[in-house]
Amino acid sequence: MRGTMAAGGFKLKTLMILSFLLTWAAVAAAHVFYYAVARRDQSLTDARRIAWREAEIPALRGRILDRNGIPAAWSELYHELILERIPDSPRRRENLRQRMERVLPGAPAWTGKPPILLKSNLAPDEIVLFAREFRLFPEVRIVPAMRRVAAGSSEIRERIGKTAENNAGEIVGISGLERKYDMELSGRAGRVIVMLDRNGNWCNETLRITRRAENGKDVTADFALPAGTEASGERFEHAEN
Amino acid sequence: MRKIRFSIPLGGESGPLLPFAALLILIVAGLLGCLSIYSARAFSEAPLVFAMKQLVWLGGGIAVFLAAGLVPFSWYRRGAAGLFLFTLLSLLLVLFFGVEINGMHGWFRLTETLCVQPSEFGKVFFLLWLSVAASADSAASFRKTLFLFGMSFLAILLLMMEPDFGGALVFFAAFLIVMAVSGANFRHLAAAVALLAVCGVIFIALNDYALLRILGYLDPEGGYGVDAWHIKQFQYTMAHGGWSGSAWGSALWSSAFLPLPHTDSLFASMVESTGFIGGMIVICGFAAMGAGFTAMSWKIRDDAGRVFVFGVGAMYLVQALIHISVNSVLLPPTGVTLPLLSYGGSSLLSVMLAFGMAFSAAKEE
């Protein structure tokens, strides 16, 4: 079908529309300039405030050795799966519940007030599985923590003493040798800065150590563990990282 | 000495040629899109997945572009009404049989990993039908405008029900563009705009999420939830780009904070990677695309053909400007992809189809 519209009129109308669109493009470009260049410093300051965090890396508490150099008390890393808060939206709550039923059938019901311990002593393959399955649910976290393990008879364990977590989240000795040599065993926590994403997860690419952790020193006690003594596995206290 | 033209023969014996340059530009733009998608996903668990998929779609898109350019435009003109009816039907069916992705009920699931978004192809067929119908006779009668508006309104309504507010905006822009260049009465057009504006206000009033987006846009510090949060994130993402960007593959802020950095937030992610200079290149590229299609439409004598060719350039320029404006905090958030560059097979293939059809129309000059 050949043209019935006037070519001049068509050209003029298209030029008018194009001019409007190019003006719009120029305004958009000005906006990009404003945020990318003119207002950059202020936005970056705000962005750093909301996303960057400083965190402590706890120092590894030193070991207590018997007089023959055999470990009698030491720190051990373990992981727990914790529901830190229940999702606000009903849909999200239902999605998480379904995911949990599939991945973790024996998980406790959400009856108590969070945080709720879903599973303790995670195996390495469980850590990988849960990290993947709950990636979109920042409410569920795999929390690493340290616990103190002691070996020997109950008498020796009593001499070794106990630890507890103080208000700053550090493990401190509260009795026995743990208390007596607390300064030597404690070490000094390190510091890192890291960017968090919108779900509160660490962006590992941004992690920077600002102060290296200094691990606690080993302390030698005057008792001797009987030959063949194995760790009792008894868990005295623990502290979260 | 005889001059050699770098072109691919697509017409008949005497038919005009599809410029080689256009094909080259599309390939370069498509590859830039793949690179941008990779950059936006660089810090995800599988950074290459979306970029590689897009590369496959780009290959398919080039084939669609060439094939669509081979078909005579008269065939498209004859099938315009049928294609538009097919569009309306698919937009209706997707409401019942489609799947929801990113809060929008707008995809048909073909296989486990393959989905098709009918509205992407629908906007091409809608534009084609509108161009043909609006150019059918010269009389800009009220009845004709009313009929075209009614059909357009039906398509827009179906999109709003998904809800795809961004897609509806692009359809509406296509309607305005075609009617304006086809010589519709200004008062009729103003009435159509007013009616749709009223519908838009009713839609916003009935949908809390849309209202929150606008309130969040007007006052990003006002605590209007996730939308105000997204607006701030767009600002921070661009700030990370500065003049020249943080290098490809370093769009960390986009990856960590932007919603859908490889689709609806791609422009902001590109600004983070390439800075204001990279953003300007993208904006100028789309402006050049609009100007190129406009110049191409002037050479066509067939009314439907020239309206369609201008419409393709203008519609995708509008879509790009909506995307860029949302990403640069000039408009409230709405989900629209950046044509040619954003991830998505339906989006890329439909753009290539539209461009191929436009070159087919230009061939019949």
Can you walk through the features of this model?
The complex is a heterodimer of chains A (241) and B (365). Chain A has a single domain, classed as Penicillin-binding protein 2a (Domain 2) (Alpha-Beta Complex). In chain A, 35% of the residues lie in helices and 30% in strands. Chain A has helices spanning 7-38, 40-51, 90-103, 124-133, 154-160, 176-180, 182-186, and strands at 52-57, 64-65, 71-83, 116-119, 140-151, 163-165, 171-173, 190-196, 202-211, 219-220, 231-240. In chain A, the strands form three sheets. In chain A, strands 2, 3, 4, 5, 10 and 11 form a six-stranded mixed sheet that branches. A three-stranded antiparallel sheet of chain A has the order 1-8-9. The longest helix of chain A is centred in the N-terminal third of the chain and has 32 residues, at 7-38. Chain A is elongated, with a radius of gyration of 29 Å. Chain A starts with 6 loop residues before the first helix and ends with a strand. The longest helix of chain B is centred in the last third of the chain and has 33 residues, at 266-298. Chain B has 13 helices and five strands. Chain B has one domain. Chain B is mostly helical. In chain B, strands 3-4-5 form a three-stranded antiparallel sheet, covered by helices on one side. A two-stranded antiparallel ribbon of chain B has the order 1-2. The relative contact order of chain B is 0.15. The chains are: A alpha+beta (241), B mainly alpha (365). At the A-B interface, α1, α2 and β9 of A face α6, α9, α10, α11 and α12 of B.
What structural keywords apply?
heterodimer; A: 241 residues; Penicillin-binding protein 2a (Domain 2); 6-stranded mixed sheet; 3-stranded antiparallel sheet; disordered C terminus; B: 365 residues; mainly alpha
